[in-house]
Amino acid sequence: MLDDFMIRAVLAGLGLALAAAPLGCFVVWRRMAYFGDATAHAAILGVALALGFSVSIFSGALVVALIMALTVSTLSGRGFAMDTILGVLAHSALAFGLVGASFLSGVRIDLMAYLFGDILAVMPSDLVVIWGGAALVVGLITWRWSALLTATLNPDLARAEGIDPDREQLVLTLALAITVAVAIKVVGALLITAMLIIPAAAARPFSRSPVSMAGLALVMAAVSVIGGVQASYQLDSPTGPTIVCVAATLFLLSLSTSRLGRHH
Predict the structure, then answer these.
(1) Which phi-psi region, left, alpha or beta, contains residue 54 (left: φ > 0; alpha: ψ -120 to 50)?
(2) Cβ neighbours of residue 2 under 8 Å, at least 6 residues apart?
(3) What mean pLDDT comes out for the span 220-235?
(4) pTM of the model
């Protein structure tokens, strides 16, 4: 019988998988990997501010991640090179967050837990936040699925059909900020982007439609979580990184299988 903390870890990981899998497909389709990375790095600054002002970690991470995502979206249309903006903002936010955390007196903060996750320390109250956030992300994506897909594949067609691509970008930005805030306790700020991108990338070679890719990405993410938690228990390795290692292994298997299929 699994210990209670193991069951909570698996449930927390599955909640993250539920949010990250469909959102990760849009991140892959739109080539937004660095965008997700910048948002995730900003969450550390949110954690430091939340601890400094004695508010919930989720609230602090969500607000700062959302501000970062909106800032990047705004600046990207002003003639700045996107990779430059993301590089400056992502690493600046991470640095300010780490420096800010060092000035917190009388507050015990485990930076490793926020950088790489501490899924085994998830409490029942954390599960409510994680699954609540995941439900919100899934609801947002389901509600706007058709418009998001059209705006992603062909912005000009979207405008012709009365869909505002900027509005759909805002929906994705909000969903990304919520996912980052939910995931920071599970896999940490430095590994969140991996859980967004790797399951979606692993699902892509076997998908015949956007819906099938989202569904298969969810399966890949769930297998990564369950396999990662089990492997970390057996190997006594850090759980968040182990989950990502399992996801990366699935991606390599996916890549190899699809190439073999093309040769035959």
Answers:
(1) left
(2) 10
(3) 94
(4) 0.88
